[in-house]
Amino acid sequence: MATKHEMILQHILSLEVGQKISVRQIAKVMNVSDGTAYRAIKEAENQGLVSTIERVGTIRIEKKKKENFERLTFAEVVNIIDGQVLGGRDGLHKTLSKFLIGAMQLEDMMRYTDAGSLLIVGNRVEAHYRALQTRAAVLITGGFDTEERNKQLADEKDLPIISTSYDTFTVASMINRAIYDQLIKKEIIFVGDIATPLEDTFYMRNTDKIEDWYVLNRRSTHTRFPVVDSKMRVVGMISSKDIVGQDEQISIDKVMSKKPHTVQSKTSLASASHTMVWEGIELLPVVDDSRILIGVVSRQDVLKAMQQIQRQPQVGETITDIITSNLEAAPDEENVFVSQVVPQMTNHLGTLGHGVFTALIIEASSRLLMDKRRAELSIENITVYFTKPVQIDSELRIKPTILEVGRLYAKVDVEVFDEKNLIGKGLLMAQLINR
């Protein structure tokens, strides 16, 4: 039988795209408390079923396909540019196919304006009207308003007409940056992308007995299971080591491991991987905000996904990508790396940033350990200090030296030189993740 939480999510899923919802409305329709309705709506937002927009409210939106992450909805544009919706609120869930700047004659502008696009333009009310007629949304810059007929047309066609106080160039830059950020996020794998869903998950109730574990073990061939209560909330984990030598009639809740580690769908793969490595966990329950079980993720799932990440094409560069791509092996000396200090790596004073310096030390150490031990590292402790500032365009020589290395841990000392001058050092302790 479905829980109240699941029933509310199914109800939200059945609503028409563009329909407004509220906590009070959901609580009344589904006959649940405001708290239960609120948690379900937040989960729906995490799943991309609804979007909450300031001064508009929460609306049902079309769930984006993963291949369209580089697209933005008009609702997201409103948030990005801190805009005010003048009309066409029911179309905020729609996705814009492209945006264009209306800095030309009206007829020329209309040749490039088509359905699904967003026209960014100033106080040109006729352009607003003509764009809406071609089924394009309108973003008015400079804080201007528009005519009532344009607002009415926007409502009729469910096409947003938005106003912002920013100028045209700033708005275009903000939207372009948001699309670029989405391209980077496209590469990030979350637990929800690889988890086994609830319908395929084997789990036990806290009222089950140990004999039930043996039955489930034979049916699934698994040895670890999440344990849930009557409301499907995760309350423990049970594995073969917990039941060894125990009477088969003993209740599961008497021998299970309580307060287990859990993750959510929006937990990054990197975070889940770190938890599994450091805690020695083979299986993590995936839960919602109320700790209700929605699936599981195994160490094997995580390892496969991490291998897949390495095969993904690079779409957008993060600051870390810029730093690491600028680090190369020195041609004249073994186990030494060189890096050019580019503008993105500097602080407001024009010198090498402290965080960038730390990232270079970690990356150089990581490459050395990968070469010598075929192992990746997970930092446990790092101490870093500068002896002098590093100017832009300097060429750094980074020399990591392994002081100690074992099966699980490594200690690395790193010296950083600008030409022949020592400009900083680092000492790090790390856990090794063998490949």
TrEMBL record:
Tell me where in this chain the CBS domain is found.
195-254, 256-314
Entry's transmembrane regions: none
Cite the CDD domains for this sequence.
Answer: CBS_pair_DRTGG_assoc, hot_dog
Stored InterPro entries: CBS_dom (IPR000644), CBS_dom_sf (IPR046342), Diverse_CBS-Domain (IPR051257), DRTGG (IPR010766), HotDog_dom_sf (IPR029069), Ser_kin/Pase_Hpr-like_N_sf (IPR028979), Thioestr_dom (IPR006683), Tscrpt_reg_HTH_GntR (IPR000524)
- Supply the PROSITE patterns for this chain: CBS
- Annotated Pfam families: 4HBT, CBS, DRTGG, GntR
Write out the entry's keywords from A to Z: CBS domain, DNA-binding, Transcription, Transcription regulation
For this protein, the record's PANTHER family field holds: CBS DOMAIN-CONTAINING PROTEIN (PTHR43080:SF2), CBS DOMAIN-CONTAINING PROTEIN CBSX3, MITOCHONDRIAL (PTHR43080)
What's the protein called, per UniProt?
DRTGG domain-containing protein
Q: Which organism is it from?
A: Oceanobacillus luteolus
- Lineage of source species: Bacteria, Bacillati, Bacillota, Bacilli, Bacillales
